[in-house]
Amino acid sequence: MFSIAYQMLGTVSDAEDMVQDTFLALSRVPSERITHWKAYLCKSLTNRCLDRLKSASSQREQYIGPWLPEPIVTEAGPEEVTLQHDHLSLAYLHLLERLSPIERIAFVLREALGLDYPQIAEMMGKTTANCRKLVSRAKGKMEQKITTKAPGPNRETLPFFKQFLDALYKGDAQQLTHLLAEEPSLYSDGGGKARAALRPLFGQQRITAFLLGINNKMTKPFNVTLVNVNGQPGILKQSDDGIDWIMTCHWENHQIKDLYFYLNPDKMKHIFSSYEVTGTTITIQ
């Protein structure tokens, strides 16, 4: 249930709250009134998520800079396979932000849960035809397909990330450009609480310049931790004050297609309270 709520909302804390509220409400309903438990729970969760998403949409419209879904961080390792699902990748969740609240709910019910349209109509209190239109419209807005499945961090990805960090620290513009795909994009989420690009960046030249700007702020040496971020390779930089930033990417053929930087502390405060952040530590000398 958390997975579904997280896809619908894009925030960890809200998803946890919705699941908890759903079960609390269930405890107050006489069991004899429920004939199909799974359907009842799903409908109850869907209604709560839709209400929360509607209220959150206006807040996200006023958000300073790009708004990214809250990351789920786990230890980098071959055993971390539960989050390597396309529907939980940040690239996929970021695409969901293109949809209206009602389109997003219908789309997740169809694509993630695999429900048929009559079932979706029952849960959303709409006609079957209307739900078909909602999902069709959502698919049209999400014309970008996530087709390449990037593996979680392991021995094969470690050299890739160290190569990226070495180039980043040395300010090697040529190597950074080489590591970027032909048409890359970069999203940095600062939320007005940390310095970040206020708009998405596109193209090798602009992204390389942004990364070189990060290089100017780095002190030598520094450590980063190789982690899973929603099942995709990621790097976490932390200090005595907490997490400084998180970087993850969607990459194709050992080149970075999309870069995601988290700098807003509010987007990372749930990580230590929910997960033990461990993983391979890389020291950049």
UniProtKB/TrEMBL annotation:
Protein's UniProt name: RNA polymerase sigma-70 factor, ECF subfamily
Domain of life: Bacteria
Alphabetical list of InterPro entries matching this protein: ECF_Sigma-70_Domain, NTF2-like_dom_sf, RNA_pol_sigma-70_dom, RNA_pol_sigma70_r2, RNA_pol_sigma70_r4_t2, RNA_pol_sigma_r2, RNA_pol_sigma_r3/r4-like, WH-like_DNA-bd_sf
Record lineage: Bacteria, Bacillati, Bacillota, Bacilli, Bacillales
GO biological process: DNA-templated transcription initiation
Organism, as annotated: Marininema halotolerans
A single MF term (Gene Ontology): sigma factor activity
Every RNA polymerase sigma-70 region domain range: 2-57
Subunit architecture: Interacts transiently with the RNA polymerase catalytic core formed by RpoA, RpoB, RpoC and RpoZ (2 alpha, 1 beta, 1 beta' and 1 omega subunit) to form the RNA polymerase holoenzyme that can initiate transcription.
RNA polymerase sigma factor 70 region 4 type domain residues: 91-142
